[in-house]
Amino acid sequence: MSEVRRRQLGDNELPVEQHLQETFERTMEEGAERLHRTLRSVVITGLFGGMEIGLGVMAYLAVLHETDSHLLAGLAFSVGLVTVLLAHSELFTEDFHMPMMGLVTRQAGVRQLGKLWAGTLVSNLVGGWVFMWLVMHAFPQWRDTVEESARHFVDAPFDLQSVCLAVLGGSTITLMTRMQKGTESDLVRVVAAVVGGFLLSGLQLFHSILDSLLVFGAIHAGADISFLKWLSWFGYTLLFNVLGGIVLVTTLRIVRSKELVVHYREQSPADPDGSRKRTRNTG
User: Fold this and answer.
1) Which of 54, 77, 186, 252 could connect to 201 by a Cys-Cys bridge, CB 3.0–4.6 Å?
2) Quick check: is 283 in a domain?
3) In angstroms, rounded to a whole number, what is the distance separating the alpha carbons of residues 231 and 238?
């Protein structure tokens, strides 16, 4: 009876709440759009994302330099996430939820996901490297601040605490993007970005892209940090960011929306090249 009653109360015919279906469709469709971008588009939006998140790092360093408060600096860092949101740029770790929804509903294939992930990751790092060169030459007085911030990450031992910080970093930004897709209000999306920025930077969670920009800034400022040291930290942080975003956030929501996943998989016949056509069910 509860299922019959739920259908009577909602406007949709599927065995899930109406708001869940609407959020699922928005997430699936944007994920499919990202998966079907050309490589040129992936690279350009990734470069913009790396440079624009650098605005948040710049704000973070400015506040940290003046106040020595990571919590206040974390609030300032949210400028970067708001910029990425409103400028429709791309951060690698934002791609753990939406594209996965497009993948599991057969809107695209694994090849498209690999192109999106690899292209966005590399271009984020390149864009961030260039932007931090500009920042550190514009504000050389931040040298000690950026080096101390960078060493918090690259000097951290590979232990349980570091793993947990990386898992939380990945799950936090993935949940932030999930929250933003759960509403059509730009104001609420901005609030979600501020919350995400505060948690990520204010609590110094390990985030493969954001914290790499701090390391790049320290290298540009002349700090004795080698690329090998950065790469060793980056490697395990990237892995556990992915696990945190996919396991703690995305997988649980796929299980929660099992009926919708099955429904849209059936509505998405395969293309000749093995990818999937994007379709939308109006209910």
Assistant:
1) 77
2) no
3) 10
